[in-house]
Design brief:
The chain is of the alpha/beta class and 395 residues long. It has 10 helices and 16 strands.
């Protein structure tokens, strides 16, 4: 089986590379993946793979039933489909043709790899028992995401998975390698929106005003104690602000300032406490300076937890498939993923797929307008998913 999957991965690489380039050239934003879903559905039709479309918007659920005797298990493989609002600045002949939209997070690689895995598994269906599900998920990049709506729509009502497997590109890891982390892996993610309102006016007459700009600066500084002094020392946490709008001028203090940021952690109890603290500190700091602060906290994705047993098994299977030298143990990440909703409901394994050019340390990171991948990683991506699915079906 290993040799068969490796051979099929190598044979399918030109086709899957072509598919990835098509997806890359025609990216679509979250909840707008209509053409992407239609293209994926057409590929599945050509391969005679049973699938449902239009789940929670543009989601797709594919199904391959093994023909070998025995009931078998149900293994789900997941990929996301949406792109980011970024203007691509690469020179590829397959660069995005959609202005201001780019696959800068590798979701084109994810979808192409899953298509490749299903293409391989469909050819091997006579050799396994059980069921393979392929989840093509919309809207990973924007809260509330597409994973939970797909589950709420009942994608697992008929086929309840024993395990869900997902992968995500990692440009700092060379192509040909994969990385695993059992247990707690990725952070929860909440969006913080603050609106400070005061009395604006001439910057030369601050004594006549209630300055929301200065208050905003103090709010940001005071909120740092949420992580530095209030967070339990053993729980990783991040509170960052990346957007501040004070639409005044060099001699005009505005009446309103808007701030946006993110809070991330790995513990749900502390997460709830921290959000209360953020609200209290922001409001009280603003009031002490004579302005008001409206706080909106949008509840985002939960933390992603990999099943310990299934992940450790997957590491051993990956070593069988790629060799010990191609497997890395990776650390907790404070980035977030709505695959976490799957991991909260079903045993799950979410791992990293190396897409960097071997020997090249000068890479462009995720969400960069010049992000690129070594397309040889597609062979690893589809082969690894197919092999993990087969091995977990057997065990």
């Amino acid at each position: 089986m290993k040799a068969q999957i490796q051979a099929l991965s190598q044979q399918a690489l030109p086709l899957i590379t072509q598919i990835r380039r098509h997806l890359h050239q025609q990216p679509e934003l979250s909840f707008q993946e209509e053409q992407t879903a239609a293209f994926i559905s057409q590929q599945l039709k050509e391969w005679n793979i049973t699938h449902e479309t239009g789940i929670a918007g543009h989601g797709i659920l594919a199904r391959i039933s093994g023909e070998k005797a025995g009931k078998g298990r149900i293994i789900a493989l997941r990929a996301d489909m949406d792109a980011l609002p970024i203007q691509e600045e690469t020179s590829f002949d397959f660069k995005s043709i959609n202005d201001g939209v780019m696959h800068a997070c590798g979701h084109d690689v994810h979808s192409a790899s899953l298509l490749g895995a299903l293409f391989i598994l469909n050819q091997l269906r006579s050799q396994f028992s059980g069921t393979i599900l392929g989840i093509f998920q919309p809207a990973e990049e924007v809260i509330p995401g597409g994973a939970k709506p797909m589950m709420d729509a009942g994608i697992f009502n008929t086929y309840k998975p024993d395990l869900i497997i997902g992968q995500h590109v990692l440009p700092e890891m060379p192509a040909g390698k994969v990385g695993f982390k059992a247990g707690q892996f990725m952070a929860s993610s909440d969006e913080i929106y603050l609106t400070l309102k005061g009395k604006g006016g001439h910057a030369a007459l601050p004594h006549l005003l209630n300055d929301p700009v200065t208050a905003a600066a103090y709010v940001i500084v005071n909120l740092q104690q949420v992580v530095s002094r209030k967070s339990p020392a053993f729980i990783p946490s991040v509170l960052s602000f990346g957007r501040i709008i004070a639409n005044g001028a060099n001699n005009v203090i505005p009446s309103e300032v808007q701030i946006a940021g993110t809070f991330r952690t790995l513990d749900e109890t502390w997460r709830a406490s921290a959000k209360k603290l953020i609200q209290e500190i922001a409001i009280n700091t603003a009031q002490s300076m004579g302005v008001t602060c409206e706080v909106e906290i949008r509840h985002g994705y939960p933390s992603l937890v990999n099943d310990e047993t299934a992940t450790n098994q997957s590491i051993e299977y990956a070593k069988e498939f790629l060799g010990d030298q191609s497997i890395e143990n990776i650390h907790v990440r404070m980035t977030a993923e709505d695959f976490a909703y799957f991991s909260q409901a079903y045993p799950s394994v979410f791992y990293r797929l190396g897409t960097g050019i071997p020997g090249n340390s000068d890479f462009f990171p995720l969400h960069s307008s010049r992000f690129e991948v070594d397309e040889r990683s597609l062979e690893t991506g589809m082969g690894m998913m197919a092999y993990l699915a087969i091995k977990h079906l057997e065990n």
